Amino acid sequence: MPRGVSRPARAGKTGSRRLDSAPMRTLNLGLRPYAETEAAMRAYTAARTPETEDELWLVQHEPVFTQGLAGRSEHVLAAGDIPVVHTDRGGQVTYHGPGQVVAYPLVDLRRIGIYVKEYVFRIEEAVIETLWQGAGVVGHRVKGAPGIYVRLAAPHSHERLHTESLDPFRGLGKVAALGIKVSQHRAYHGVALNVAMDLAPFERINPCGYAGLRTVDLRTLGVQAAWDDMAALLAQQLQRRLQGPAAVFSRGPQ
């Protein structure tokens, strides 16, 4: 497991202790190789018991392309010197590198009282609120394409997206990618928010399986934001939404 990450608690005399309102332990793992972190997530999740506390891992990864379970090799156009790692998360290929906030919530969905669809919704809501509070940027969803998108010409605009176009990504850039895995109600993997990174590697792939989809970061949008600040804000927003049954949020108008 990564240094500083404790092993999950095991059932015993404390087995009856309620964890519904326990704070989510948050760990900043620094810059880590992807494969090492994924192996640690799998081990942590496999060893969980119903009494294991949830954790949130924040990390930056060394340059890597990751393929999800549905990943198709043709979406990796020219990996070059960047390794391609096959994972057990959902989705297609994406890129991770320094300057990107990667958040891995390791949570028990049964204890929170939600299903996968609601879990994905809450993660996306956390990113949308992080963008607005931390950068004044308005994040949008695109139906059938998990993640968060921004208007390239007007990233601060609240105008509703028009989805009548045959190209649902027209005028949009992807600023956050999402890919999760749920096994026996235990979720791992997570979300990646682009803050200030080298975006060139995204041109070597079809991001998330979409040819021509533009990927952006906050710096591209004219926002100078510190990684630490955006990581702390994203952690706060995720914690608010994933703390247990009491963490219920109205979806409001879409």
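Above is the first protein from milestone M3; the second protein from the same milestone is given next.
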Amino acid sequence: MRTAWIILPLMTMLIAPWLPEAWACPAAIEPSPDTVAVPASTMLPVRAVSLDFSELARSPDDLDRLEQRMRNTGVNMVGLSAGRLDWTGFRWSEREERWSAAVRDSGRDLLAEATQRFGGWAHVSAIVDVFAPRYLEEQPAQRALDTDGRPIPYQASIHALVNGPFGDELIAMIDYIARHYAVDSIALTELFYYEEGYGADDLALYRQYSGQRDWPRAPRGSINVDHPTIGAWRSAMVAQFVERAARVVHAHGKQLFVDVRVDWEAPQYEGRRSGHDYALLLKHADRLVLWNYFGLSNASPAYTRDIARYVQRYGAERIIISYGLWADHGAVVDALDLRRAMIAGQKANLPNAWITPASLMKEEHWQVLMSVWRRASPPILATTPPQLAPGH
């Protein structure tokens, strides 16, 4: 899943004078002119919960109970899994071969049903996962390669993302959702590169960006994946795709969110080593969703406070902290640790919280949400009128 990274502060101090401009931490962010302004209704503290396919495919009675539980708890934003390019949770017209088994076998449009259900009282965000193992199995030339030249089965290369057919098809999927579904936003997840993206086409892009003839190398000849020029290049490429996605989403009056990594040694390093320069992304995205997955990173829940304090520079209304319930060895984050983390975020004046996934939530986790969100706020109403997907 997600792993933690360590960057030595001393090394950063030594190389800081030569860091690319993209690594700087600006005092303010100037969004692009077509960025959708965050409506006044969404200035309220975000209280989001994510639902994956397993939730969306439940029976109407089960969904009724889940919906009531969410409303009673104070949820005002719902993240709905729209699936992947090659495994959708919706009935993509003329792309039936891309439908997931849950959609194909049931004949249901899970995204349309859930949007209609939750859209009347909550902000609805369609989550698009950029991994595509089935697609890449059929298009192996578009797979990312690791530093040893081995293909990554689920991830497209950086070149395929920004200049290839994969990126074009992913944009088509995003456009289809924004055009035909009454969601309020689209959230991109798994859009990162760290040990992935070192093929010949990727190297050509790196050469063009950096002016270097080859990847930076460690003393023994391996690619130095932690070199700041690679991080800056990755960040520029990811931001280039996000700009393209934002243009499509904003054309339909929707917002664009982007999931980003955090650094577990020091928040100011952001997720640049994975291509997540917050300033670059916020020029195009409306909000960033920070992966505060402390259960997978051997970090203290209290570290949330450091993350929240750092990102204030970007405007608290444009940042949501995602509290992942995954823990090491297949375990689930303890409810008390979740409470400590959420309170740490609140005390640092960043109350926007996104709990993921609902499928891992136990009774004690719901009780924590009610405790932390004890003062209920008015719901965020959908900014687009309810509508059915094409063919319904």
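Note on the second protein: Residues 1-28, 378-392 have pLDDT under 50 and may be disordered.
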